[in-house]
Amino acid sequence: MADNSSDNFKEFHSYMGMLQNLDVGLVVLDREYRIQLWNNFMESHSGLHPYEVREKNLFETFPEINEEWFRHKAECVFQLNTRAFTTWEQRPYLFKFKNYRPITGSAEFMYQNITIIPLDSSVGVVERIGIIVYDVTDVAVNRIELKAVNDELKRLSRTDRLTGLYNRGYWQECAEREFKRAQRSGSPISLLMFDIDHFKRVNDEFGHPAGDAAIKNTADQLVMNMRETDIAGRYGGEEYTMLLVDTSAENAKVFADRLREHIASSTVHYQDASFQYTVSMGIAELNDDIKNVDEWIDAADHALYESKEGGRNTVSIFKKS
User: Fold this and answer.
1) Measured between alpha carbons, how far is 309 from 140 in angstroms, rounded to an integer?
2) Which residues contact 270 (CB under 8 A, 6 or more apart)?
3) Judging by DSSP bridges, how do beta strands 279-285 and 315-317 pair with one another?
4) Domain range spanning residue 62?
5) Do 233 and 165 contact (CB within 8 A), yes or no?
6) 63 shares its domain with 199
7) pTM over 0.85
8) Is residue 244 part of a domain?
9) What pLDDT, in 10s, does the model give residues 139-196?
């Protein structure tokens, strides 16, 4: 009596022979994950001839394959007699082949979509599985590049070009979110506002480009001193604003004084000019009397005004009247 399973596989092998030159990879594995079929696509991209891989264990031959992950995928195909899929977004590749396409030369490796199909015997038992490997590098690279462009456009729409800080509009959106979050959680949060002292004098004496250099230097000092959780923005002109999350007014003042001293000790160099300058700061911790973000900003701005009136180069905390 003929072995139907063997006959079926021979028929499948013959069919695969007609598909050798298709631009997809075709691999057949037995129940022990030994390679039974290896088409031209796989040979071309791996550099391994079919006789070199036949009857070899897949995971020993290609150690870059995550065995636990692939076995989980494949066992579903073996046991449930159903197909399984994975896309490059979920996992960039199954076989780490180099990318040789000139159009997508920026990609180091071939991005792949994978289909795993059951190859059942005449009695319905899945004895082998087929792996179809699709080269989707062009699609993946184009989508990645498009995402990078969109991400950059999104970033540019949120940031101030001169300083790299959040612009006023996006910072205001962040402030609205943090205001609501703090109201729900009851966690302390403080708003810091500050600006450059006698900024008009800087522009008049050294010129507007030097003033821009001072604005940029202030932002750089701010970025160097802030925490990852802090949210800083350029509020307008030479004025800056910052949300210090989970921070009381007293602790915010410790940060503000340190930042103020860093700025005062820094020197701006522009062309032949070198100069130093100071900043004045105001802090308002969120409390139950503040009903919205505009009132919160007004409170911090009032504290900033007190610092200006008090002689500048200082930090003031808003106190309820």
Assistant:
1) 59
2) 206, 207, 209, 210, 213
3) parallel
4) 4-144
5) yes
6) no
7) no
8) yes
9) 888 888 888 888 778 778 899 989 999 999 999 999 999 999 999 999 999 999 999 9
